[in-house]
Amino acid sequence: VVEIPQGASVSKFAELISAQPNEVIKRLFMLGQVLTLTQSMSDELIELVADDMGRKVRVVSPEEEFAVVYHDSDDDLKPRPPVVTVMGHVDHGKTSLLDAIRDTGVAQGEAGGITQHIGASVVSIDGRQITFIDTPGHEAFTAMRARGAQVTDIIVLVVAADDGVMPQTIEAINHARAAGVPIVVAVNKIDKPGANPDRVRQELVSYEVVPEEWGGTNMFVEVSAKKRLHIDDLLETILLQADVLELRANPDALASGFVIEANLDKGRGPVATVLIQRGTLKPGDSLVAGTSYGRVRALVDPRGTHVDAAGPADPVEILGLNSVPVAGDEFRVFEDERDARKLAEERALRERLAAQDAKSHMSLDDLFGRIEEGKQTDLNLIVKADVQGSIEALRDAFEKMDQSEVRINIVHSAVGGITETDVTLAAASDAIIIGFNVRPTGKSKQQAEKEKVDIRLYRVIYQALEEINAARVGLLSPDI
Ligand code: GDP
To answer: Which of 91, 103, 138, 228 to mutate to test the pocket of ligand 1 (most atoms within 8 A of CB)?
Structure first.
């Protein structure tokens, strides 16, 4: 079976099935289709012509075509900085701790300066980098994970020493565990009179978060975000935990990773902060992020500086996308800008179709109901048949039918199986698909189910006429 990319040109198709381009053009012509070498073929034509020529083919969508599995050899993998998310119960000091960490990191770091809010920050301690995701809280983390984005290596669980384990503390532990991410506990607010760090340790044992000194696997640090106490200890502990994880990535590849924040900036257009997981991102790179694509016009680091490159575990703002992606979207650089565009546009199309999903499309079963309600005056049909004769016969029969209440329109008819293109067209024009001695090909059946497009299959004309007539007067038996 030869895989043909969706929308392949005539010459590409010929090349892939090792046929003479002229032969393909001739077959197309015999199907009533006049195409030139560079024109792209519909799924249906690809399948029809291939079938005609006795070749087995499968039309692959851009999503399948560009699916990748990254293979990095051991030599390619270089140590990379850890990515950390801060979680914990409300008011236990997540925001204060992130502020304290940034101050400490900036004071130690080379450039200093004002930190921009890009959704992530980078601090350095002992010359090593730690990346923090700035959105504390569980929702952002879970939402990203739900989209398949695993961006965090370590979770810092903030527990206030005067308050102890609270519902969201437990929730955070569960999220961390579900994601398989190790927990470093920051026992915060130790400056407060009522602080009791040991009670926090004891309470956490019931949730299987056990300090190393008690024989467990969790590192604990006592801090005060407010008084800036032991913040470097916490950072060093994070690095120790990172060392245990032996985090590595291949920096010498086309970049890929996840969007962690995105918005539409008045002056700069769509802006997305991405976290790079593999490879190195540079201005000029073409990339796809969810349904957005574009060429990187500029890269901005968390300090607001324009940079020439960003590598594994670096958060960076991207300018130059055509639209705003969603946090949790995967991004990927493509060698060829056209491929990036193709994949993004395909995804955008699927998304639009899925959005229409909510409103169920026309079906024969509810035709009568819609007529009664005065909503339906047209019945749109897409007719596919094994021979042209069936299509003509049906058309003639419709012309003789009483169309005073419902007008029957054949929006598209062709010889051949029911393809994904037919389903897309049916969804767009609220049509029913009728097939004579043909079946849905490939994934079109699944797609029709998803988009709630009614497909009716018949062997003979009169069955179809009977059913349509019955449906018009509300007599269609529900078991058909
Ligand atoms: P979040 O809801 O977890 O982000 O918590 P915040 O960072 O907003 O802190 C909640 C409150 O606790 C604020 O009034 C902080 O000033 C206070 N707070 C945070 N850390 C400390 C600390 O180490 N010591 C004391 N005394 N107060 C703190």
So the answer is: 91
Total Cβ atoms within 10 A of residue 303:
17
According to DSSP, residue 66 is labeled T
pLDDT in tens, 220-264: 999 999 999 999 999 999 999 999 999 999 999 999 999 998 999
- Is 136 labelled a binding residue? yes
Q: How far apart are the first and last CA of the chain?
A: 35
Decide: 417 and 455 in contact? Cβ < 8 Å. Answer: no
Residues 6 or more apart from 111 whose CB is under 8 A from it? 303, 305
Q: Which of 377, 376, 372, 379 is nearest to 394 (CA)?
A: 379
ipTM: 0.99
Instruction: Looking at the CA of residue 96, tell me the nearest atom of ligand 1.
Output: 7
Amino acid letter, residue 207: Y
Count, in order, helices (H) and strands (E) of the chain. 15, 21
DSSP 279: S
What pTM did the predictor assign?
Answer: 0.69
Cβ 280 vs Cβ 309: under 8 Å: yes
Write 411-415 long-range contacts (CB < 8 A, 24+). 411/380, 411/381, 411/382, 412/382, 412/383, 413/382, 413/383, 413/384, 413/385, 414/44, 414/383, 414/384, 415/31, 415/48, 415/384, 415/385, 415/386, 415/387, 415/388, 415/391
